[in-house]
Amino acid sequence: MTDELGLPTDGETVLAAPVGDDLVLISGVADAMPGVVPVLLNGDPAMSMTARVLTWARNNAPPEASVGFVAVVPVKVAGRVRVRSVVMRRKGQPARYTLVRRALPLALFMNIVSADAGPEFPHVADGVAQSLLTGKSNPKRFAAALSMLTAAAHNDGFVEVMGVVDTGEIFLQGWSSELPADQSRFIISHDGLVVGEFKSARVQRDDLGERGYGFVGILNTSETLVDPQRLKCLFFRGSRGWHALDIYDRCVHLASTDVPAHIRDVLPRAAANSETLKTLRRAGERFDGRDTVATLTQPVRIGMDMVLELPRGGLLVSGWMLDPEHQVESVILHAGRESAPIDETWTRLSRPDVTTAFQQDGAFAQRLDPQRNDHGFLAYVPGLSSVSSDSVYFELSLRTETAAFYPLKPVKSSSRRALDRVMAILDPRSAVTTMAIETHIGPMIQSLDHQKPRAIEFRDFGYDENAARTGLIVGGGSEAEEILVALSFLALDPDTHDVPIIVSVPTELFGKVAVEVQRLASFYRLGIRLVAADGVQDPCDALEAAVHVTNLETFVFLSAGVLPRRQGWLSVMERAYRMRGAKVLVSPTVVFEDNSICFAGTVLDQHERRLVDRFLGYPCDVIRGAEPIEVMAGSTACCIMSRSAFQDIGGFSQSYLSAKEKGRDLCLKLKLAGTPSLWLPEVEMIAADAGPGESNLPWQRLTQHVDRWSFDRRWSLLVANMRGGE
């Protein structure tokens, strides 16, 4: 049999140690045992599985007990099972064992195996650790494997310097006495266990004497992300079994940009094969914070106009690259450890100014084609982001198998006003602009972290909404005059004089208009609440901010630039609204100052299956005598709706740059939620601030293009399957 702490040597009994709930280690002796065997536990066919077996030769043992073994057995049953017997179906005679005692703690089990295996224990520990590391991740398996390695390994030195190369590999420097030169396989203790390949060179160290030698190397853990600050120990196999490199308690942690220079300093003293030295040399040539494009002997230069970083991730880069001889094979954008090639997706833009600037440069003068100016580029890269400690830069790979780097300084931006700079470099008449919008600008706007506008302050001037059924919300833009004119019109109309009025303006305009609003309220005896709204980019934002400072059940949206043509308009709109049970959005006709139609309902074109504005630009006479009709979308520049309908759909979307598509989007959301839009032709408003020529301004045209892309991306398929007003 066996003594209390020895390995069973009778060939009929075994020891067992569980690892978690789905693995058990079994150890005993036999006359022979293959590396993989079918196993049957407790004589139950449902508990049949395959086990990996690690063996060692037992010195001075009889033939029937000449081989010791540890079997790693996956327990394929639910819940805890007590193993009582094991049958190993090897060739020849199956070996049947019973457990000599209850399961042992893993540490005791390992001590018993180590005592019997002697010098072969590191091999056994290695095999068991590898088995524990394969398959599904399990903290208990990792702990067991770490325990096996710790028991088998001898301390062999320390890691004294480390840092992450920008490509994700880890630079290590230290000393050892047994670390093999060139390539080693490391098992890394790092919140569990990670396997990596280590390419290292030896460095002579006078301070070590006969104890060992210095090393420098690059650790590659493939797809596994390793934080050097959390490394605990490195295990490797040497000529005399397992060894461990501990982390020196005063280990120097290099910044990523400092690693290349450190490698360059130590390379002259490093000894290794050519492949290892090449790996180290390339790591020493990585990004170290400097612009190395400007120092290239090849005719390649690069410059940046802007680098915008979005709060929810993503970088938009715009600049130019001059490469008349096509020396650059790829351009990669790096942000910390993340990267993405941009030359496969960027949009090239015309930059004749770059051509002009380099025509007198000797390195480029004879190489530039005066007919080619597509040196500019624009690219949005979703998913990339940086933190304050991360470097953002371009890597240019050249045909000469060298790389050059260009550091970038991202500007964090959550405001759509930052897009002014982007729009300024685009020509709205160019087909390239369409590509840039669809590929880069549109997706960027969709991912912008648009915060909802909010009211941060308000003042009341005779305002009281307690007895009111309906209130007016006037949304102001950047012009104080149009707000004051709108209030004067409302004051002179008996229909709106006694209605509670909420005037919502951008924060920067609040102080400028407060005194005049108070004067008008006092002079005309109006009830006005003046709201300072933060995050306002257009009238829709101002309107939405005001909704949150009132308890009115019904409100009328009115953009400050839209004025009533005649008095009594509000009662007509409210009557139509009440006749539909307050389950509708009602909009009037909106005309330009030249009496042409600005809005007469948005309907579905049945032939092209898209939304169109009826009679846009036609004279008003074409709709004289028209009847109210249900349309696909009304105009939020002037409309009446219920508070609950507006809030139930989440208000205005923030994924648009202008009010037009934002209003359409709102109306379609309302329609899907059961609140249709109604066009009321008999009420006319004048769009005093929207002359026909303004939409032809380049920025306006680009904004409309971007918004159409955003709208179509969200609604085109759904609209094509809708039924709408004709």
UniProtKB/TrEMBL annotation:
Domain of life of the organism in this record? Bacteria
Q: Which InterPro entries match?
A: Nucleotide-diphossugar_trans (IPR029044)
SUPFAM superfamilies, sorted: Nucleotide-diphospho-sugar transferases (SSF53448)
| Protein known as | Uncharacterized protein
Q: Which organism is it from?
A: Microvirga alba
